[in-house]
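User: Batch of two.

Assistant: Item 1 of 2:
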Amino acid sequence: MTSLAINLWICGGVTAGCWLASVATREYSWVDRVWSIVPVAYLWVFAARSDSPRVTLVAALVTVWGVRLTFNFARRGGYAPGGEDYRWGIIRGRIPGWAFALFNLLFIAIYQNVLLLAIALPAWTMAANPRPLGAYDVAAAILFFGLLAGETVADQQRWNFHRLNPSGGVLDAGLFRYSRHPNYFFEISQWWVVFAFAVISAGTPLLWTGMGAVLLTLLFLGSTAFTEWVTKSRHPEFEDYRRTTSMLVPWRPRTDGR
C-alpha cells in the first residue's frame, strides 16, 4: 500500500471519528483537537515510505510545529470537556438544527479533515522527486523556524493578555500592533514554506499539491472575517483598531485610518 493510500485511510478514519464524537457529545470542536496531531502523522507516513531526506526534514519541522500548537491548545482548555470553539455555538443558534447537522458533517468533519491531509501533500511531491538537500532547503528550514518563533510569541502575548483581562478586550500591543492576527499570518506562512520544499524538490511551483496551502489561506480568511464580526459586536472599540491595523500581514499601523 502506498503512503498516499495509507494516509487516505487515516483521513477517512479520523473524519468518521470526529463526526461520530460530535454527534455523541454534541461538541463540535473535535477536528480542532486533532488539528495539530494528524498532519504530523501524515508527514511521518510519507517519510517512512520515502528515501528522501527532504521529507524526513519536513516531517521533523512539522512535528515541532505540532508539539507547540498542541501545548498552546491544551493550556487554553481545548481538550477539556466543554472546550468547544465559541463560533460553532453562534452558528448553531442562527440556523435550523438540520442545517447545522449538515454543516457539521460536510464542513467541520469532512472538509477540515480533507484540508489537514491536503496541507501535508507537498511531502508526496517531495517523495516523488528525491533531489539532494541544498542551500534552498536550509533557507526554507530557517524561515520555517522564524515563522514558528513568531507564532509562539504572538500566542504568548495573547495568552498573557487574556490572563490579565479575563473579560476580554482588544489586544493592540506587541505583534498585535502590526497585525490584528499575527498568529494566523505565521500559521499560514509555515504551510506555504512546506509547499516551498516541494517546489525546491520538483523544480517548479506548478504543483497541484499546493492547493492545501491555498485552501488553508482561504479558510483562515473566512474564519478571520467571522471572528472579527463577533468581536466587533462585543467590543465596539475594535472598529478603531481594525481601521488602523493590517488584518494578517504585519505592517506599520495607519495613523489616519486609511
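Item 2 of 2:
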Amino acid sequence: MAEGLGTAAKGFGATSTTEDVLAGVDLRGKRILITGVSAGIGVETARSLAAHGAHVVGAARDLKKAEAATAQVRNDAAANGGGFELIELQLASLKNVRLCAYAVLEMGKLFDVVIANAGVMATPFGDTLDGFETQFGTNHLGHFVFVNRIAGLIRDGGRLINLSSAGHRYSNVDLEDPNFERTPYEPMVAYGRSKTANILFAVEFDRRHRSRGVRAAAVHPGAIQTELGRYMGPEKLQQLVQQINERLAEAGKGPFQWKTIPQGAATSVWAGVVASAEEIGGKYCENCHIGQLVPNEVNFSEGVRAYALDPKNAEALWKKSEEMVGESF
C-alpha cells in the first residue's frame, strides 16, 4: 500500500475523487473485500481499487443487481491487472452472514483491507430476520459478526474501514434499548445510533488488533445522492438540507454541497490504501483527512462527537453486541 502519502503532502480534501487519491498508486497483488457493491459508492470504491490492480471481492445482498452494477468494475479490473468477484451477503440475516463468513474462510485467502461499506438509512421502523431494529441490525450487528468471523484473514499490517456518517451526530448508541422497545422510533435517531456504532466498532477493533499491525478506522463519505436515501423522499431530504444550511449559516460557512460518487468514495479509498496506518488507526475520517472532535451542543459541518470515539463506550458496545448476537469474539 502507498504508506505515508499523508493528506498534507497531497492536498486532498472534500472535492478529491478516487482517481485523485489513487494517482500513481499500484495495488497489484493486494486483495480487498468490500460490502455493498450493488450501488453508489460501493461500486465506485470497488472500481477504483480494481482499476489500480487490486483483486476485489465484492459482497452484495442481491447478486443479480450487483452483477449488472459492476460491469465497469470488471472491465477496469481486466484492463489494469486487477480482479473482481462477487459473493452473497445479507446483513439483515445472521444465518446468511455466518454462511458468507464460512465461505470466505473456506477460500482461505488473506485480505489487505476490508471495507464495511453496505448499509441502510432512515428506514421505517422494522426488524431484521433476527429481531433487531433494522438499521442497528443491518449497519452494525451484521458487519460486527461478519468482520469478526473473518478477522483472522486480515493480513498483519492490514486494515478495516467502516463506513459511518456525519449522521452519527444525531445520537449516541443506546445500549439499554437498542431495538426501540421503550423509546419512540425516529428514523434519523436510529440511523445516528447505527452510525455511531460503526465508529465505536472501529475503535475497539483497532485496540484489539493493533498488536499485529491491523488498524481500523471509520469514514464519513460526505452527502451523495445515491440509493441510500430512498426512504427519505424529496420533501424530507429538502427539509434536512434546509436545516443543515441554517446551521452552516450560523457558523459563518457557505451552503451545503452534494458530493459526486467518485468524491464520496475517495475517503474510503484514502483511509484504506493511501493514508498511513498510524494516522488513521482508531480515528474518524472525512474529506480525506482525520475528523476533529467537536462539542455535542454545537452544530458543525465537520467533525466527530466524543461519544463516538470513547474507548469505554466502544468496549461496552462490543460486549452488548456479543450478547445480542449470541457469539463472543
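The domain at 7-322 is CATH 3.40.50.720 (Rossmann fold).
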